[in-house]
Fold each of these.
Amino acid sequence: MVAIAGLMASMSAMPPVVDGSGRAVVPASWALDAAVSPPSSSSLPLSGVRIAIDPGHQLGNHNFPREINKPVPAGGFSKPCNTTGTSTNGGYPEATLNFRIARLVEARLEALGAQVYLTRTRNSESLWGPCVNVRGEFGAKVHARLMVSLHGDGAVSSGRGFHVIAPKARDPWTTDIARPSRRLARALRAGFDARGIPRSSYVGGGTALSIRSDLGTLNMSDVPVAMVEVGNMRNASDAHRMTTRTGRIRYARAVVRGIRLYLAR
Ligand SMILES: [Zn+2]
C-alpha cells in the first residue's frame, strides 16, 4: 500500500527510540570491492548481475510516527519518510509479507548467480525506515542493474489481483529511467501472468500497469525501477495466497521470472 501517507502512524503511541537509523544497512560482504564470485558460478544465468530488492515499509514504522512522518525529498516535492503499510483483515502485516517475499526472491536470484542487495535486511517492531528517498537512491548506490520494490495493496475488499507501477517521465528526475522502467514493469507483469496470479480488477483497466509520478521510491531512482503490488491484502482470496508459504513462493517465482525476462537471461 503506497497511497496513504503516514495516516496510521499518528494513531500509535511512540515508544523510546531503540534503534532504526532509517538507513539501509549494507553488510561488509556486500562491499563493492568484495572478492569476485568463485569461477564455478560464472556460468550461472545471472552471474555478475547486481539486483536491488526493496521490501516496502518496515514492521516497526507505526512505533515511530515522528520519524516516518518527517518530510523527505521525493522527486521535486516532499513526502513523509515512509508509511506504515497495510495488513490483511486478519492482521498479517504488509511489511512482513514484503520482507518474506524479498527473502525468497533473494535466495532464488543468488542461486542463479546474481548479487542481491536489500534496502532493509531486518523486519522488526523496533526499527523504522529507510525513508522513500533512501530506498529510491539505493539501486544506484549499490550499482544495481535494476530495482524491484515489493508491496501489498490495501484497497476495497472486493478488488483483487496484482498491478505493477512504473515512474512517469519527469524532467530531470526520471527522464533517464522511465522507458526501461516501463519495460521492467511489463516484464514483471509477464512473470505474474506466467504464474497464474490474477491481474488487478481495480487498477489499470485490465493491463495491471500503472504509471505514477507521486512515489518517492520510483522518482528518486537512478536505475530502472518498478513497484509491484502483489495483490490486495484486504481481499480474502489474495490474503490467502499472501499468508501461506506456497503463495509467497509463487509471488517470488513471478518476480524472478519477470527480472529474468527483463534481463533476457
Ligand atoms: Zn506498501
Note: Helices lie at 65-69, 94-111, 132-141, 178-194, 216-219, 236-242, 245-263.
Amino acid sequence: MEQSNTLQRLRRRLESNTGKAIADYRMIDDGDTVLVCISGGKDSYTLLSVLMALRERAPVDFRLIAMNLDQKQPGFPAEVLPGYLAKLGVDYRIVDQDTYSIVRSKIPEGKTTCSLCSRLRRGVIYRTAKEVGANKIALGHHRDDIVHTLFLNLLFAARLKAMPPKLLTDDGAHVVIRPLAYCSEKDIARFARGMAYPIIPCNLCGSQDNLQRQKIRAMMADWDHRYPGRTEAVFSALQKVVPSHLADQTLFDFQGLRPGGDPATMDGGDLVFDPAPLGEILPSLQGVPLAVRA
Ligand code: SF4
C-alpha cells in the first residue's frame, strides 16, 4: 500500500513535469502524430507511460506510435517489447535493421561504438517516422542527460551547447521532442523500479559507455551529493542565459558598448556574481567618499 502511494506520487510528479515541458516548448500540437522511441530502458518505458496518460486529458488530440529498433545485437530478447506493447494496447512498430554488424565491421575492436551506432539508429528512426506519417519524434532523454551533455560539450568540445528539449531534424522534416526534459533521472529510475518494467540492458553490444560521459556522470553525482540540487540549478541556468555576460560576439554587441549607452542592455548589471549578502551591502556604500591616492 505504502509503495503504491509512493508510485502514485512519483507518477503525478513525472506527469506534471512532463506536461509543463510540453506546454513551455509547445512540443505537441493538435493533430500531431508522435513516434515514441522505445529502447527497452527505464527512460523510454517511462516516457511512453507518461505520454499515454497525458494524452487522455490533453486539450489537444494527438496520436502516439511506439517504435523499437531491433539492432540485432547478440542476446537481444526480441519478444519482450512486442509482447509489452501489445499488452499496453498502443499502436507500435518493430523495425528490424542489423546496425550491429555495420558498427562491428567499421569500428576496430576495443573502440567506443556508440557514436556510429547512434547515427545509424537516428537514420532508421527518421525513415520510420516518414513511413508512418509521424511529424514528431519523442526521445526519452531527461534533465540529467541534458546537463551531462552540457558539461561534455563544455569540457571536451569547448562549446556552450547542451541537448535541447525541442529540435528540428537536419532535413527539416521532423521535430524531435524530449518531453522528460524537466524530469530527474532519480524520479524516473524509482518510477521504473516501481512499475517493474521489463528492462532490456543497453550494453548487449558489449560497448563500454563513453568514458568522458562516465566522468561527467561521476562529477555531477559527486557535486549533487555534496551540494544537493546542483543538476537542477545547472538546468535552470540553461533557461536563463545572459549573453551580455558571456563572450560570444555573435550573441552580444560588445563592440557597440560605449560610455553613456543604455545600462539596460547589460542584463544583470555590472556584478559578475552576486550572492545576496553582497547585493544587500553594496547599496549601503552609496555616498561614502572614496579615498583616492594620486
Ligand atoms: S551501448 Fe551499444 S547499442 Fe547503445 S549506443 Fe552504444 S553501441 Fe549502440
Note: The chain has two domains: 11-209, 243-283.
